[in-house]
Design a protein that fits this description.
Helix content: 40-55%
Number of domains: 1
Shape: globular
Protein name: DUF1471 domain-containing protein
Keywords: Signal
Radius of gyration: 16 Å
Number of helices: 4
Distance between the termini: 45 Å
Organism: Ectorhizobium quercum
Oligomer: single chain
Mean pLDDT: 82
């Protein structure tokens, strides 16, 4: 049983180390993630999917409309000088916060 606990703990630490720092949410519950930061081994499939979405104007327009209608997202984009045209996807996290993927 002790070995199982150690292996579980090691796996959790490894997963945390692979997660991009950009996932940290601010006080408003909004996380801004640059899709280029996902161009790593563990996140490559997400990177590829978001790059495909970035090429589809219908998808990006929907995400940009959602971002512009949410004051918390709009504030965070403005605070980081990120133009609305750079928004590719807006997801809702398990805790209710928003994850905004930008180019």
């Amino acid at each position: 049983m002790n070995t199982t606990i150690k292996m579980t703990f090691a796996a959790a630490l490894a997963a945390a180390a692979l997660a991009p720092a950009a996932y940290a949410a601010n006080a408003e519950g909004v996380s801004i993630v640059y899709i280029d930061s996902l161009d790593t081994g563990a996140n490559r499939s997400t990177f590829n999917l978001l790059n495909q979405k970035a090429q589809n104007p219908n998808v990006t327009q929907e995400a940009q409309a959602e971002a512009s209608s949410d004051p918390a997202i709009a504030d965070q984009l403005a605070a980081r000088s990120i133009g609305l045209h750079n928004v590719v996807e807006v997801d809702t996290a398990a805790n209710g916060g928003k994850i905004v993927y930008v180019r």
